[in-house]
Amino acid sequence: MTESTSRGKFITFEGIDGCGKTTQAEMLLELLEKQELSISFVREPGGDPISESIRKLLLHSEEIMSDRAEALLMIASRAQLTDKVILPHLLNGRWMIADRYADSTLAYQGGGRGLNSTALEEINYFGTYTLKPDLTFFIDISVEEANKRMSVSRDRIEKEGQEFQQRVRDFYTNLHTKEPERVMLINGENSIDAIHNEISSIVSEKLIS
Ligand SMILES: Nc1ncnc2c1ncn2[C@@H]1O[C@H](COP(=O)(O)OP(=O)(O)OP(=O)(O)O)[C@@H](O)[C@H]1O
Ligand SMILES: [Mg+2]
User: Fold this and answer.
1) Residue 4 above 60 pLDDT?
2) pLDDT digits (tens, 9 = 90+) for 75-91
3) In the chain, how long is the greatest CA-to-CA distance?
4) How far apart are the first and last CA of the chain?
5) pLDDT (tens digit, 9 = 90+) per residue, 14-51?
6) H helix intervals, the chain
7) Residues 6+ apart with CB under 8 A from 23
8) Of the options 3.20.20.140, 3.40.50.670, 2.40.170.10, 3.40.50.300, the CATH number for the domain spanning 10-207
9) How far is ligand 1, taken at its centre, from the CA of residue 31, in Å?
10) Which of 31, 54, 138, 159 is buried deepest, with most CB atoms within 10 A?
11) pTM of the predicted model, to two decimals?
12) pLDDT tens, 180-189?
């Protein structure tokens, strides 16, 4: 990084399946692009050829996958994406929006599957090259509402039932309580436009001054 270029901001979207992450991430991307900000978007797991191959294994594998293999593959995919895409862009002064990041591993493999969260935090720390988002939007909706919104074809993890999704949601709620300055809790049951306005105001207030 040269002295004249400050690091770009890193914004992530989190929440249970179907809460509206992709909808809101794309709307924010479009808004910030219109403001002529240099910004890119990635999705997790994926966002790079190697990470996309790992995504196929993770979401569409027919075999029974061990919980730890699932966690390690998620983090492997993230390490690749962070090293090859996210960090180089941020260090060049470009902003990045990620549709899921490290908090998803804590919420799904920790909260959802019950793996040891201290172990997951340590491996995440390694896999992210210690990068943390500047701002995270946790879009919160009930499991019932999420089920109404989700498409008929579900991936391997989306097929895990309501109790699993509830544990993931509870984990995110606790994360917001633990890190209220970074993890913004957004009521995802409001209208798409109302949520977008709320998110844009927070980004302006916290990251664009
Ligand atoms: N605030 C909202 N009110 C009603 N419907 C919404 C709202 N936000 C998104 N939706 C709709 O819900 C569905 C799921 O939204 P979206 O794909 O953005 O969720 P997601 O969190 O990215 O899901 P996934 O975890 O499966 O990727 C879409 O059909 C979308 O149009
Ligand atoms: Mg999505």
Assistant:
1) no
2) 999 999 999 999 999 99
3) 50
4) 22
5) 999 999 999 999 999 999 999 999 999 999 998 889 99
6) 21-34, 49-60, 67-81, 87-91, 102-105, 117-127, 143-149, 162-178, 192-207
7) 192
8) 3.40.50.300
9) 18
10) 138
11) 0.95
12) 999 999 999 9
DSSP-assigned letter for residue 136: E
Give tens-digit pLDDT for 138-181: 999 999 999 888 866 677 777 788 999 999 999 999 999 999 99
The SS3 of residue 182 is: coil
Which one-letter DSSP state was computed for residue 66?
Answer: P
- Say how far apart CA 37 and CA 104 lie, in whole Å: 27
Q: What is the per-residue burial (b if ≥16 Cβ within 10 Å, else e) of 28-46? A: bbebbeeeeeebbbbbbbb
By most ligand atoms within 8 Å of CB, the mutation choice from 43, 55, 101, 149 for ligand 1 is 149
Give domain limits for the chain.
Answer: 10-207
Looking up tokens 């984990």 gives: 171
Select from 12, 13, 22, 30 the residue to mutate for testing ligand 1; criterion: most ligand atoms less than 8 Å from CB. 22
Nearest to 81 by CA among 64, 96, 60, 65: 96
- Sheet harboring 10-14: ordered strands across? 39-43, 95-99, 10-14, 135-140, 183-187
Distance from C-alpha of 28 to C-alpha of 135, rounded to nearest angstrom: 13
Average pLDDT estimate for 120-125 = 98
